[in-house]
Design goal:
By secondary structure, the chain is an alpha/beta fold. The protein is 38% helix and 22% strand. Strands 3-2-1-4-5-6 form a six-stranded mixed β-sheet, sandwiched between helices. A six-stranded mixed β-sheet has the order 8-10-9-7-11-12. It is globular. The two termini are 28 Å apart.
């Protein structure tokens, strides 16, 4: 049995999902020879230290660690003072400066800790630095959850398609936009009506600009460009057009001609824009689903689909990355 001692940084929606999934899958992990022990949880209010393992029920009912934290240590202090092998970084994304996640990842990798993350910001802002740190310290940097949620995109390319040359990737990488466009097409809703519905259902934030203006998708395009195509691009290198200007009339016209309108990100073209997708295409998925077509030289076109958001769904991708590190599937810090 391999014991893996984990420090979790970030205790928002995804952080709660990670705690829950680690508890729910404890027996399954044991059956494959892994003892995943969560030894600390840190958020902006403090740190909950549990060297013998966090008892999930002691913290899951708390929205933050305020009133539960037993230490005021910041993440960097935790990494240096507690015995941990791996850091899960799930603080909020900022693609302008990448903080605070970038600092957390730099510290963890520099200390010889594996890093698994759902935080796009640091990978958009400073991917090369993080990749080099992982290589230098012989640890893994894994980030499946940053791009497609439960859609196994990066891992599929790294493992199953490893003998192929990847010619391009085109896909739907934002469930919020896909939901809005689906409802506009199906119900002939105006944009604002569909957006309000998405917000009421929790698919869109109170400030939805990050999603609907294409920023989130552009960040994912940059991550794919850097990690799969060995490019060195930032958010500003991606040409971005969001969905705010799309009308029900344009969707109806597209449907009559056999097409759906989807917000598509393309790599290595570095574009994000609404595009016409044939109704029979594997990319013509509805609701909050994500989908991606991977174009290869040997295997043709491979299409994958999955839920792109949700705390449990994101946590499942994080768990998959953790398991891959300790089951011998670590491919040099994610194509590093």
């Amino acid at each position: 049995m391999t014991e893996v001692r984990i420090s979790l940084v970030g205790y928002g929606v995804v952080g709660h999902g990670v705690v829950e999934v680690l508890e729910r899958k404890r027996q399954l992990m044991g059956e494959i020879g892994l003892d995943l022990t969560l030894v600390s949880v840190t958020d902006h209010t403090g740190t909950y230290l549990a060297p013998d393992g966090v008892v999930a029920k002691d913290i899951l009912d708390h929205r933050t660690l305020e009133g539960v934290a037993n230490s005021d240590m910041a993440a960097r202090e935790v990494f240096g003072s507690i015995d941990c092998d791996l850091v899960v970084e799930v603080t909020p994304t900022n693609i302008v400066h990448g903080q605070p996640g970038l600092g957390h990842m730099v510290d963890a990798l520099s200390m010889g800790k594996h890093v698994v993350t759902s935080n796009k910001g640091p990978l958009v802002v400073d991917y090369r630095r993080l990749k080099d740190l992982a290589r230098k310290n012989d640890v893994a940097l894994k980030f499946e959850a940053t791009v497609g949620g439960t859609m196994p995109l990066i891992s599929l390319i790294e493992r199953t398609l490893v003998g192929n040359t990847i010619l391009g990737i085109r896909g739907i990488f934002n469930g919020t936009c896909n939901y809005i466009l689906t409802r506009m097409a199906e119900e002939k809703y105006p944009y604002n009506h569909a957006l309000t519905e998405a917000q009421e259902l929790g698919y869109a934030e109170a400030d939805p600009s990050y999603d609907v203006e294409g920023v989130d998708t552009a960040g994912k395009v940059a991550i794919l460009a850097n990690s799969i195509f060995d490019m060195d691009v930032k958010y500003g290198d991606v040409e971005v057009t969001g969905i705010t200007g799309i009308t029900p009339e344009s969707l109806i016209l597209a449907h009559k001609r056999g097409y759906a309108v989807k917000l598509i990100g393309e790599v290595p073209a570095l574009t994000v824009k609404p595009m016409l997708v044939p109704l029979g295409s594997p990319l013509a998925v509805g609701s909050t689903l994500n989908a991606a077509a991977i174009y290869t030289d040997l295997s043709g076109t491979i299409t994958v689909t999955g839920l792109g958001a949700g705390r449990i769904e994101t946590a499942s991708a994080i768990l998959s990355d953790i398991v891959s590190i300790y089951r011998g599937n670590h491919v040099d810090a994610q194509r590093s």
